[in-house]
Design goal:
The complex is a heterodimer of chains A (461) and B (209).
Chain A (H helix, E strand, L loop, with lengths): L2 H17 L15 H7 L15 H10 L12 H4 L2 H6 L6 E2 L5 E2 L11 H6 L1 H13 L8 H21 L1 H11 L10 E3 L3 H21 L1 H19 L9 E6 L7 H21 L4 E8 L4 H7 L5 E6 L2 H8 L4 E4 L5 H4 L2 H15 L5 E2 L14 H14 L36 H7 L7 H18 L3
Helix pairs in contact in A: 1-9, 3-9, 10-11, 10-12, 11-12, 16-17
Chain B lengths: L3 H9 L3 H12 L5 H23 L5 H22 L8 E7 L7 H12 L2 E5 L6 H11 L3 E5 L5 H14 L5 E5 L5 H7 L3 E3 L2 H11 L1
Classes of the chains: A alpha/beta (461), B alpha/beta (209).
């Protein structure tokens, strides 16, 4: 076996152990650098690469040679993390707009009025497609069907083009460096908590803040109505312990705990339990400072979920939540700019003294830096090398924490019914029109329908 | 007869129905302009309570947004009774989100709380070019300039804007606000103050006047 392949297997075991609640040889250190930073490192401007991600190839190779990581430092483009501008621009999106600094951002936009809750509650998917999407993506207006069809076709091709552009380099880097290739294909997905989904592109941050007080009951009903859509949107096709369902949590730190418990939590908790029931691990990013929510997380969130924190006291979070959940995040990315290599080693040592013992923590920053100005690369290199060399465990092979679905939740389709809509495929109806269609075709048609469902939902995160 | 203390407390408690009932009953009595101005002041007092409860961790950002909306609604009901009169303006703030950044929620909260505290706020929006900040500052001569941003890159945009303002001889006090601002960032930018808390930002601004 080649050295590189052996290295890749070693790294794979670090991750597979971690995700099976077994203490690995050492804590893995897998970083993903922001694509803007990679472009800057290559001396490029902040715009061009977003229309040809293959431009990241050379600087990505140089950075991978310079900075240690167990997984590839540069990921291929995807619409969620890269916010690929071509697609959004072709859709005429007002939700994702490029600022004059070259960063696509999400301004405060409204896709649903406060008197439209009944429509959302009655037929959630129909309402999203008919009303919300055309408001947020101006070229997807059913009043102009040819323009809409053209925009969708072009947008899909643009996204596919963007996603493919860096892929050959990504695979090349995995092979040449022996990187952990990531969780198995199809085991990663993403969704939103119901209230965040309603806030994000339907009611807006300001709108939802009003509705929490003015339309509390409707908001609770709407969260329950959209939850099954969000569940099936987020469910990975190939569930694996190393895979996850990424769920960025946005609104709770802006709310009172009372409102969180009464409005946010009920539907979200059911969703999490149903993910756990089928072995799909929720991986939630607890945005901002969740210190006042730690007790609620401990009592309400299913065991074995992965929680990424931005702010908060590492010791407190570890002590309180470390036995029930997989933890990540918290290491201050601002130190990449302010620390010398020696200083960050001291900082990392102090941090690992807290987070390493007993296992269960995966290294992660509080948030990703955006640009090269925010990172001293020598400091970053010193940090990852320190972790590589000093994050070994004393008791590899021992069990830690609490596995996913230790509670024994059972999948119940009545709690998360599959989405139904006049716009989604229904085999029985189809078969009546085309009785000669063989039954094996059903799976394909249903897959196409699910991918179409995902396409529309993806426009709303 | 409107009990101003009850109005202030109702607004501080964010009891929308109570606030609006009180004000509708009040305006139905055809109050004088002076009485209406007292009602406005009572509402502003309620906003001060909201700011205090926010600082004490009883309220959160969502509550501030609701409070801003409630105040706007309350003033809307009082407007006919106010005639041409208006509360005294204690100072002018030029406000905007710096270039490269499209976020405006924090800026809008600061605006509504500053207006509630008696400032006139000239809000020039998001992704504001350096030249626009400078030109507007020269035109309206504000006592205070507020710059907002959420992205970490906003810090550099703030610095560039502050440098240009100083080079143009604008001598207003400058406060920066938003998720990425820190003491170090404030020193780097060359601003006079920083905050991640709109209520605190209003207090700092009041102290400057």
């Amino acid at each position: 076996m080649s050295d590189v392949l052996a290295l890749q297997q070693q790294r794979g075991k670090l991750y597979s152990d971690y995700y099976s609640n077994t203490i690995p040889e050492r804590m893995p250190i897998g970083l993903t650098l922001p694509q803007h930073l990679v472009a800057e490192y290559g001396g490029q401007n902040l715009f061009d690469f977003q229309f040809n991600y293959a431009m990241l190839a050379d600087p990505a190779r140089e950075l991978c040679a310079k900075i240690y990581s167990d997984s590839c430092l540069v990921a291929p483009a995807n619409f969620l993390l890269s916010r690929t501008p071509s697609m959004y621009q072709l859709y005429g999106s007002q939700s994702f707009v490029m600022g004059n600094g070259g960063f696509v951002q999400h301004p405060e936009v409204v896709g649903m009025m406060d008197d439209e809750y009944p429509q959302l509650i009655e037929k959630p998917f129909d309402f999203l497609v008919e009303t919300v999407i055309p408001r947020q993506h101006k070229n997807l207006d059913p009043q102009n069907p040819i323009k809409m069809a053209t925009a969708i076709q072009m947008g899909k091709l643009a996204l596919q083009n963007d996603e493919m552009a860096f892929l050959p380099t990504f695979f090349e880097l995995i092979q040449t460096h022996g990187y952990y290739p990531g969780s198995p294909l199809g085991s990663f997905n993403f969704t939103e908590a119901p209230l965040d989904f309603i806030a994000d592109q339907l009611r807006s941050f300001s709108g939802i803040s009003m509705d929490v007080r003015r339309h509390k009951t409707q908001l609770q009903e709407a969260a329950a109505a959209v939850m099954p859509l969000l569940y099936h949107w987020g469910l990975p096709g190939n569930i694996d312990p190393q895979g996850s369902v990424f769920i960025p949590l946005h609104m709770p730190t802006f709310m009172r705990e009372k409102d969180f418990v009464e409005i946010y939590l009920p539907s979200y908790k059911t969703m999490l339990q149903q993910f756990a029931a089928v072995g799909a691990r929720p991986n939630m990013f607890c945005e901002h400072d969740w210190s006042r929510y730690l007790d609620i997380l401990l009592s309400e969130i299913p065991a074995g979920c992965q929680l990424a924190f931005e702010y908060g006291d590492p010791q407190t979070i570890k002590d309180k939540l470390g036995k029930k959940f997989l933890l990540t995040g918290l290491f201050p990315s601002a130190s990449l700019k302010t620390d010398t290599p020696a200083q960050i080693v001291d900082r990392a040592k102090a941090f690992l003294d807290i987070m390493l013992p007993g296992g269960g923590y995966l290294f992660g920053f509080d948030k990703n830096p955006l640009t090269l100005k925010e990172v001293n690369l020598e400091t970053l290199a010193a940090l990852t090398e320190y972790i590589r060399d000093h994050a070994a465990y004393e008791n590899p092979g021992a069990a830690f924490g609490t596995p996913l679905n230790s509670e024994g939740f059972v999948y119940d389709e009545r709690l998360v019914p599959k989405p139904k809509s006049q716009y989604l495929f229904d085999w029985e109806t189809f078969k009546q029109s085309y009785p000669l269609t063989p039954d094996f075709a059903r799976a394909n048609f249903e897959r196409f329908s699910h991918e179409t469902f995902d396409f529309y939902m993806n426009l709303l995160i | 007869m409107l009990d101003l203390k009850v109005l202030t407390l109702a607004l501080g408690d964010l009891e929308e129905d109570q606030v609006m009932d009180l004000l509708r009953e009040f305006t139905a009595t055809n109050p004088s302009e002076g009485d209406a101005l007292e009602a406005v002041a009572a509402c502003q007092g309620g906003m001060a309570i909201v700011g205090e409860l926010f600082e004490q961790g009883e309220y959160f950002v969502g509550d501030l947004i609701f409070a801003g909306e409630l105040l706007t609604e309350a003033i809307g009901v009082l407007k006919p009774a106010l005639g041409g009169g208006a509360s005294a303006v204690i100072g002018t703030i030029l406000l905007g989100t710096v270039h490269g950044d499209l976020h405006d929620i924090g800026k809008n909260i600061f605006r509504s709380m500053s207006e509630a505290a008696g400032f006139e706020v000239v809000d020039i929006g998001i992704d504001v070019a350096i030249e626009e900040f400078v030109a507007k500052a020269q035109e309206i001569k504000p006592q205070i300039i507020g710059m907002s941003g959420v992205l970490t890159l906003a810090i550099d945009s703030m610095k560039e804007t502050v440098d240009a303002l100083k080079a143009a001889g604008v001598d207003a006090k400058i406060i920066i606000g938003g998720n990425p601002v820190t003491k170090d960032a404030c020193a780097y930018v060359g601003a006079d103050a920083f905050t991640t808390n709109a209520a605190e930002g209003v207090k700092i601004s009041q102290d400057w006047i």
